[in-house]
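We give the chain.
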Amino acid sequence: MAMTQVAGAIPLCPHKGCAFRCCDFQQMVHILLYPGELEAAVAQDRSVAHLEILGTNFHGGVRARCRARDTATCDGGYKPLDCISYPFFPELSAGSTGRQGEAQVVTVAKGSGCPLAADEIRHHERYVRDIWQGLVEKDSKIADWLRSLSESTTDSLDPEDYQPVPGASARDPAA
């Protein structure tokens, strides 16, 4: 898979008129960091100075607002996986209840604020699903966090609508 040098960058963005607008957070009021993500970034000496922490226990994760002057590069600091993943957000497949021994299969939903069609960015969808699938398999807290987010009501700080992307799951070899 050919990805650009910036993790999560979608090469089609500048050619579709949006020009990486999502990095300006015009559609979003906040970003989410999965359980342990902020701590891991700090432990790796990554700057998180551009992140204004809004809550340190949002379903077990962290809610933050980006205050970077150059949001495309996060002022040279840590870029949260929520930003890298956009316009997709991970979900667990309908049968993923968290029972011991059960496979946790990641699917994705696409944010309505992105003008690109899901079909146009299938490579990014697979990239995002693969990253999140690996995290879910490695840490059950992340699966629990995703499950709790799917069970919660609409987030008043994020007016963007997310719709499930039909098609292959992370376990589908044709993906």
The helical segments are 37-43, 81-85, 122-138, 140-151. Residues 1-5, 170-175 have pLDDT under 50 and may be disordered. The chain has four helices and six strands. Strands lie at 31-33, 51-58, 61-66, 88-92, 106-111, 162-164.
